[in-house]
Sequence to fold (198 residues):
Amino acid sequence: MAQKLPKDLLTLISYLKKLPGVGAKTAERFAFEFLSWEKGSLQLLGNELKEIQEKIPACSICGCLTDRGLCSFCKSRDPSILCILASPRDVYAIEETGNYRGLYHIIEHLLSPLDGRYTNTLRIDRIEKRILDSETKEIIIAFDSTLEGDTTALFLKNSLSHLNLSISRLAFGLPVGSSLEYVDGGTLARAFVGRQLI
Ligand SMILES: [Zn+2]
Fold:
């Protein structure tokens, strides 16, 4: 079927297929669904997509999402604890546990040499400056329980150990290979309370 579709429809399908969990058949279904939408709705969606990165920028200090300027976390949280995460999305999973009152720092990606993501892309200097500026006493590393998560946590621990901080990692109760976004709130809350020094 795909070979006979109009070229622009194929282009749309190829973009939709980039979304997580969307295969060729689902992308095709979505593309045909868009064709049936009213023009006004399509334009509104197009405008939202076009401006989404400008409308929802990353906080210049911690990398969390914000409407503009500093994010609400940087303005109001306990500066002695810093939770390091790999994605702004994981912040909301942690917030839902209701247990955490410290600051956040997003590193944007985990180390993965196979994908070309090496230690020099983590901006350790930026993390160190952040720690010194906020008088951080405790670091909580909250990465997915995967090989990349383990590698990055170990690298961070080794890189920051000279600062004499308490460095712990969420691990307790998190299934091996699990992504934070799929872990239920109760398990994540227990993982927080049971965080282990590394
Ligand atoms: Zn912030």
Remarks:
- The CA atoms of residues 168 and 197 lie 4 Å apart.
- Helices lie at 7-16, 24-36, 39-55, 72-76, 88-97, 124-133, 147-160, 185-193.
- The pocket of zinc ion is lined by residues 59, 61-62, 64, 70-71, 73-74 (CB under 6 Å).
